[in-house]
Design the sequence.
């Protein structure tokens, strides 16, 4: 009976010792850092085309011959009869936005508690096509005037293309790019244990017309111009 009590006592001591050791090991474990894995997954998306916008614009030019001068210290400007020229050039263009994640890093991530903010790289905009339907070009040229030259028409086309580019901030394509990127990235981030309501996808700022020179992919636009 004495030996039986001894064995029971030693078993209890051994069990308690193991339990205490196991508890100590668990408490020493550090939480897993999922940020490096998240960065690697996002970088794999590489260049993500996120939005596309088709634009139709009619370029107009009105060229009126005038006589200008001064008479009795008063300036005057008179439109010449039958001296008018007009042209309307319909132009179709396609604008695409993409985000390049090749250089995505921890600098693009802000984490606070359970919330995580992904700051997207600046979007890039490309004018992937710019076409004129020459059959629908309308011209009115008074018989006293010469037709528009090819050089003049080419100049008007360039002005129209630039007008389309200037309209980009008003087309909503930048916001579309952000929303599309969010639809791609949120599932990746949720796999890392974050809930959707705690995920914020933003750009570093609101982009305006003054930002266009830094956002445009001029290599594509130059090919179209040539």
Sequence:
């Amino acid at each position: 009976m004495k030996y039986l009590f001894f064995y029971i006592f030693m078993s209890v001591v051994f069990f308690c010792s193991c339990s205490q050791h196991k508890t100590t090991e668990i408490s020493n474990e550090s939480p897993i850092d999922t940020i490096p894995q998240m960065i690697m997954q996002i970088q794999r998306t590489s260049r993500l085309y996120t939005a596309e916008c088709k634009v139709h614009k009619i370029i107009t030019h009105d060229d009126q011959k005038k006589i200008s001068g001064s008479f009795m210290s008063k300036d005057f400007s008179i439109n010449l009869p039958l001296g008018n020229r007009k042209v309307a050039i319909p132009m179709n263009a396609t604008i695409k936005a993409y985000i390049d994640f090749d250089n995505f890093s921890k600098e693009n991530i802000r984490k606070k508690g359970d919330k995580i903010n992904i700051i997207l790289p600046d979007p890039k905009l490309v004018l992937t096509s710019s076409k004129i339907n020459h059959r629908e070009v309308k011209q009115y040229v008074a018989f006293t005037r010469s037709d528009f030259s090819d050089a003049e028409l080419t100049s008007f086309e360039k002005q129209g293309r630039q007008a389309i580019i200037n309209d980009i901030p008003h087309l909503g394509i930048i916001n579309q790019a952000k929303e599309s990127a969010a639809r791609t990235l949120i599932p990746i981030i949720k796999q890392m244990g974050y809930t959707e309501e705690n995920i914020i996808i933003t750009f570093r700022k609101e982009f305006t017309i003054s930002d266009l020179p830094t956002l445009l992919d001029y290599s594509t636009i130059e090919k179209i111009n040539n």
The first helix runs from residue 2 to 27. The CA atoms of residues 87 and 139 lie 4 Å apart. The chain has a mean pLDDT of 78. The chain has one domain: 32-57+92-225.
